[in-house]
Amino acid sequence: MTKKKERVERSREERKAEKERKRLIKEANRMLISAPTKSANSMGFLSFDPSGAFCFDGGRWVKVFEVTGSIKGAVKAALKVKSRIRITERIAPAKGESHIARAFVSLVAEGDIYEPVREQFEADEVILQEMIGVRSLTVDEAIKVILMQLGGEKRSFSYASFVRAKRDLLKEISPEIVEERNHFQIEGSFGMSMFFMEYPDEASGDTLSLLKELGCPVFVSFDLVGISDLDKEDYARTLEKRYSRTLNRDSVQEFMNVSGQLTFLCDSKDAMEIIKKTVDTIFARAGFLISPVFGGQKDSFLSQISLGLIDYKNLRNVGVETMNEIFRREYGGNQNEVRADEDV
Questions:
Q1: Whole-number Å distance between alpha carbons of 303 and 283
Q2: Closest CA to 29 of 9, 59, 1
Q3: What gap in Å lies between CA 289 and CA 284, rounded to an integer?
């Protein structure tokens, strides 16, 4: 057999194996409800479990929880769970708009088969419940929360009618956005998405708690990922090679992967520039370096208001002690003081 024929035969076998793999995955995930084709094409949303799990292209899974306690323990929780943690908070102005804080935790996992992912989510939920305090949201509840992110008014959603009507979820949750390189316009408002380029070595001063004084809606999100023992060992060996000496493993600073994003909305371009300078100053005083998301304004903002269903992140290595202190300082109180008459 010639090399060309061998390559053709190998390619045919690989395609056959891939087709069989997809068939087995589909069979294993037969309990899930398929999302409409429009949703799959626009945002990679493939299927879901009505109890709360969303499946996306590439084997990415998301489950959303409402915070009922305090997210000050989120950093420690991130070191214990197997999933990536996404924290999202919408900060309302101190005056005018209702200042009831709403924070949400999204778990992000990877895998082809739902059953082990479901078990992972359940195990991680126990940790979140113990260290943060959360309530699991169904698919309908999660989408309703997302729809409320901008205007705050209640909007209905039913996965059954969504599937029957073959609707596009991206159009459901995404407002009309005109994107510029370093800002965007939305429904008569101006907005800017920013990300944390650098974090301080030590936490000092107030930052997030000052954002409610800006007089405009602000969205803040953090992706928190614990580093595996294998990666920690690789990092220690890199330091040993750099400094040509053996290090005490207990003395090596513990790091985690963090992606911090912030978006604010205001009523004019002039106000946007003023608020940006204020935000820069607030975080610079505490040792942060924050910058607009150049070329990714829409994706960054949609990732925030969708509670991580749309994935966008800029991961940085940050000291665990630093992040833990930041969360302890900024989120020491109860996050969600939800009124008795307020439903998700």
A1: 22
A2: 59
A3: 6
Contact 255, 235 (CB under 8 A): yes
8 lies in some domain: no
192 compared with 156, residue with greater pLDDT: 192
Residue 192 is assigned to a structural domain of this protein: yes
Residue 19 lies in a domain: yes
Give the domain extent around 242. Answer: 15-330
- Per-residue pLDDT tens over the stretch 57-116: 999 999 999 999 999 999 999 999 999 999 999 987 755 554 445 899 999 999 999 999
Q: Is residue 106 a part of any domain in this protein?
A: yes
Give the tokens for residue 306.
């969708």
Angle at 75 between CA 281 and CA 316, to 5 degrees: 55
Query: Model pTM?
Result: 0.86
- Inter-CA distances, 73 with 67, 128, 304, 330, 335, Å: 11, 9, 21, 11, 12
> Who's near 342: CB < 8 A, 6+ residues apart?
100
Strand ranges, E, within 141-248: 177-179, 184-186, 189-198, 218-226
Domain count, the chain: 1
How many Å apart are CA 17 and CA 15, to the nearest integer?
A: 5
Token pair belonging to 207 = 């930052």
